[in-house]
């Protein structure tokens, strides 16, 4: 598919302000869409929406590739439905306004979701329709979550063998034993997607399209791997991962990144007609308009590391059937509204795969100014069919990046962008924003942190550090000022992006 020239903002829903310690799908999400409209933007890019596990990464440790994150459910919306009382949803106290404190948020919100469930009439036509339409993934997921709770959080490979190996009689007995917990999990998913679809309709009605995100890998301790172990390289005796995913040493880490996810048995995926993968894309496109495919290069070849390794250095590249997969996907879904995250070690073969299907690739301005005149992230080298960012969720903010940038690179940036010296540069965040909007790239996306002019303390994720990521949020919709909106809208119109 071909994008028209457009621009937008990168912001995950958990980063929205909320009285409950984490962004949700309530009033602030609608206010953010209104801000986008007034700013002349047409694209809202989010991160994966799934329920997160260890350290709450939306990319590597989700309990499902299909489910929604319960922590994003708006409690105020449940009050409007009469499932909660206003005095029951008082603001969460003693949490930092610009950081998600998961240790406090999780018990607070889950207790109130359970209270709402107790008042819910589960026989509603809307709930029944949701269960019928989504049952192909929902039933595995809700039982998985009920079993996870019953097993005190132990991974599924350590459950009793008959359940870990999904023996039908044992599964049926457990589903009956845990039916109340299963029903609660189904209720939470129903409310998440009900609220998300209402928000998406509001966005679409206001000419905002949502760019979703498919993380290439899933967590071992997920309903996906538990329900489809044949699609992954697992040890048949222990059911643990035989190999895990990552990337070799790169810009972000001298020892590479070891993500901990199991790698796919692509031969098994291909033999099934890529059924699970097609279902995954089809499900995602029920809830978003475009899909950014994270770690796109993994569809051409992926970095496989023996599970016993402590770093990603001693892995190997293994070929994947990317062309066959995307051809099959196109046959099933028609034109593919896909963006390719093609960062890192990109070979000519990856570029051929990307261009074979006309997927826009990514350009990052923060990668552009290393002094190499052939650097593909320099704006003068962009094709029109690409998407440019000042930075992504994996980068520092523009100001944080500038404050730590080597003097030589500052000089290159100044010369490239027409300044006499770095000392002449004011508001580096707006310099990068305007450079992105002015470029030939069809699409330009700016993280909200850069619009707000925030320093490195507002960084969403640092891939070289595992603990403490994915916690930033802005503390009030008041920071979305008319001044910022007017400035962004003026630049957007100046560079013909709306």
TrEMBL record:
One of its GO terms (molecular function) is 4-alpha-glucanotransferase activity. The keyword Manganese does not apply. It catalyses: Transfers a segment of a (1->4)-alpha-D-glucan to a new position in an acceptor, which may be glucose or a (1->4)-alpha-D-glucan. Its EC number is 2.4.1.25. One of its GO terms (biological process) is carbohydrate metabolic process. InterPro entries: GH, Glyco_hydro_77. It is an enzyme of class 2 (transferase). Keywords: Carbohydrate metabolism, Glycosyltransferase, Transferase. The keyword Transferase applies. Belongs to the disproportionating enzyme family. This is 4-alpha-glucanotransferase. It comes from Phormidesmis priestleyi Ana. The gene is malQ-2.
